[in-house]
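Milestone M4 deliverable, item 7.
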Amino acid sequence: MRVLHGPVVDIFKTLIPSLAPLPDPYKAVMGSADLLDACFKIFAVKRDAFAALLVDAQGAAVADNAVRLVCGRSVNEVTGMVVRSGMRAYADHHFSAANTAPPAKDGTARQSWIASVAGMFRKKPGAPRKTAANAADVFYKSIRDSLDFAWQVPFFPIYVEIPAELFVKMGIGITRLDSIEKLQRLGQLANDDIGKAEQVMGSAALTQEMMANNVLAADSIAQMSAENFKMMNDALSHLDVRKKWDVFANKITALQISGDKRVSKADIAAMAAHLDILNQHALTAILDLKLPRERVGGFLATAEEALTRPVFLSLFGPFPDVNAEDAAAVEKLKAFSLFVQNTLRGLVTAMQQLGSKFKNDDEKSIADALTVVCESRREGYIAEIRKLTPAVVPVG
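Output delivered:
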């Protein structure tokens, strides 16, 4: 920590001039989530400025954040320590009985959304009492072991509104939710959704596994039958455990799959690698147009590579969130949804035509031809995506 108070602060004072005149810049940064977030972001883009400190015991430059530095800790370890210290300082200020001043207003859309999500937890039963003398201690002890990453800092205002009991129960199940949208969905979970999901799963071990990996899966599972859950869980058993729960957390698609009599365990396994991100139109196109099961995985993988990941996600991935009260944004989302629906049907139809053109066992020729189709249409897709995608609150 000596390095953080000394050499690191000296460097940041040159990169953030407003810190220079402060009597204790380190304390100022630890006391402000916004300043701490800014410091992490500056470190990421101005890493060269810290080159003299990013060396190992032999003086060799260290680029890997997991490798130990001359100070005895890695960048990842120091990041975790600083995030936890920042959370402690933020909690002390937030829960202080003397802290009666209204929160500072931030005009950015992102900060306004963070405030609204924080308010969702504040209104839930069991929300922490700011006047409790030991509230900061109770809260910090409940969250401390679940903090490790710089991207968690902007979510401090939300974390302090979540009851400590929820962190004790879920831990990283909450702090691994890496976007405002996901935290918003957590705030929308009914109090008994996790209990309902546990009943459906019929296993305390599976409940703990779900909460450790993606607690948002509870929202979907609570609406499934035990039989449908078991079929999906068995079909996804070959996936990485976190990805499996991400599939269940993709609510619209998960419920669509579990309730569709046409979908077998083998069908789910064929699409498994992409089910965590597929939107309802992508799934419907594949099912309605009866793309052969053995071609589903290849179709998705080829389309992702040929279209590029960003374009693939725009077409096949979750739809953007818009303000339901913004009529213009809602209408634009409808137009975007129709474009996606028609585009995906066109791609699946092209895949069917290629399958009939080439021999059924000539998978390479089909994939090569589909690549040409995707690449030839990609620029047109990009133009339409730019024109039709509704504006969303930035979360990066």
